[in-house]
TrEMBL record:
Protein name: Type-5 uracil-DNA glycosylase
Lineage, uppermost ranks: Bacteria, Pseudomonadati, Pseudomonadota, Alphaproteobacteria, Hyphomicrobiales
Superkingdom of origin organism: Bacteria
InterPro entries: UDG_Type-4/5 (IPR051536), UdgB-like (IPR044147), Uracil-DNA_glycosylase-like (IPR005122), Uracil-DNA_glycosylase-like_sf (IPR036895)
Keywords carried by this UniProt record: 4Fe-4S, DNA damage, DNA repair, Hydrolase, Iron, Iron-sulfur, Metal-binding
Signal peptide boundaries: none
Gene3D superfamilies per record: Uracil-DNA glycosylase-like domain
Keyword field contains Iron-sulfur: yes
Family statement drawn from the similarity comment of this UniProt entry: Belongs to the uracil-DNA glycosylase (UDG) superfamily. Type 5 (UDGb) family.
Pfam families referenced in this protein's UniProt entry, alphabetically: UDG
Gene Ontology terms, MF aspect: 4 iron, 4 sulfur cluster binding; DNA-deoxyinosine glycosylase activity; metal ion binding; uracil DNA N-glycosylase activity
The organism of origin for this protein: Pannonibacter phragmitetus
Record domain Uracil-DNA glycosylase-like: where: 38-208
UniProt entry tagged with the keyword Translocase: no
GO biological process: base-excision repair
Length: 223
C-alpha cells in the first residue's frame, strides 16, 4: 500500500482509547516501551506470524513481539526447534534471538485494555498490516495465532471468513496479491490456553510441522 509505513510512528494518534492507555502506562511505567510495537524478523520471510495485539507486560513492556510473557516462551522455543529462529531467547529484546525466514507482526500494534481491541481499532490499524503484506511477496505461509488474528487477517485481505473458518491445525489456501499462500491456524500460545489444555505443546508443534513442510515444499518448487 503506497504511502503507509510498515511500522507506525511511536506516537501514532489514530486510536484515541489506545493512545490514552499508552499515555497512562507511560506515566505509570516510564521505563517500559509503551508505543506501537514494530514487526520483528526477516524482511523477506517465507513465514509471517500474525498475533492480535501486544501484551501489556510482554511486547508493550519490552518493545518486541511476544517477548517477556509466557506466549513468547512457547513460541520462540518452537520456532528455534523448527528452524525459524536461532540464538537464545531470554525474554528481552537485546538477547541473541534472531528469526530465520520468518517475521512476526500484530494486527493491532498498540496494547489494548484487557487484551481486547475494538472493531474500529482493528480497522484503523489494518493499513499497517496490509502495507506489511504488500511489502513481502516472499511470504508463502501465514500463521494466525488465535481466532481473532485469523479473522482480522482475512478481513484485512477482504477475504470471506465463511470460506476459511478458524480451526486449530487447519491450513487454508488463499491468495495474497494474486499469489498462493497457505494460512495456518493455531490457538494462541497464551498461558491461559496452555494451562487449560486448550493448546498443548504437542498441538503447537504439530502446526509447526505442517508449516515447515509447506515452506520446504514450496521452496523446492521455486528452486
Ligand atoms: S493501534 Fe495502530 S492505528 Fe491505532 S494508534 Fe496504535 S499504531 Fe496507530
Amino acid at each position: 500500500m503506497a504511502g503507509v509505513a510498515l511500522d507506525p510512528a511511536r506516537d501514532c494518534p489514530l486510536c484515541p482509547r489506545l493512545v490514552a492507555f499508552r499515555e497512562e502506562h507511560r506515566r505509570l511505567s516510564p521505563d517500559w516501551f509503551n508505543a506501537p510495537v514494530p514487526s520483528f524478523g526477516d524482511k523477506a520471510p517465507s513465514l509471517l506470524i500474525v498475533g492480535l495485539a501486544p501484551g501489556l507486560r510482554g511486547a508493550n513492556r519490552t518493545g518486541r513481539p511476544f517477548t517477556g510473557d509466557y506466549a513468547g516462551d512457547l513460541l520462540y522455543e518452537t520456532m528455534i526447534d523448527f528452524g525459524f529462529a536461532r540464538g537464545v531467547y531470554e525474554a528481552r529484546p537485546d538477547d541473541s534471538l534472531e528469526l530465520v525466514d520468518a517475521l512476526i507482526t500484530n494486527a493491532v500494534r498498540c496494547v489494548p485494555p484487557e487484551n481486547k481491541p475494538t472493531g474500529p481499532e482493528i480497522k484503523t490499524c489494518r493499513p499497517f498490516l496490509i502495507a506489511t503484506l504488500d511489502a513481502m511477496p516472499s511470504v508463502r505461509a501465514v500463521l494466525a495465532l488465535g481466532r481473532i488474528a485469523h479473522d482480522t487477517f482475512l478481513t484485512a485481505l477482504s477475504l470471506p471468513r465463511a470460506k476459511s473458518p478458524f480451526v486449530h491445525g487447519a491450513g487454508h489456501d488463499i491468495q495474497l496479491s494474486g499469489r498462493p499462500v497457505k494460512l495456518f491456524d493455531s490457538y494462541h500460545c497464551s498461558r491461559y490456553n496452555t494451562n487449560t489444555g486448550r493448546l498443548t505443546r504437542e498441538m503447537f508443534r504439530s502446526v509447526f510441522t505442517s508449516i515447515r513442510a509447506h515452506v520446504d515444499e514450496t521452496s523446492s518448487l521455486r528452486a
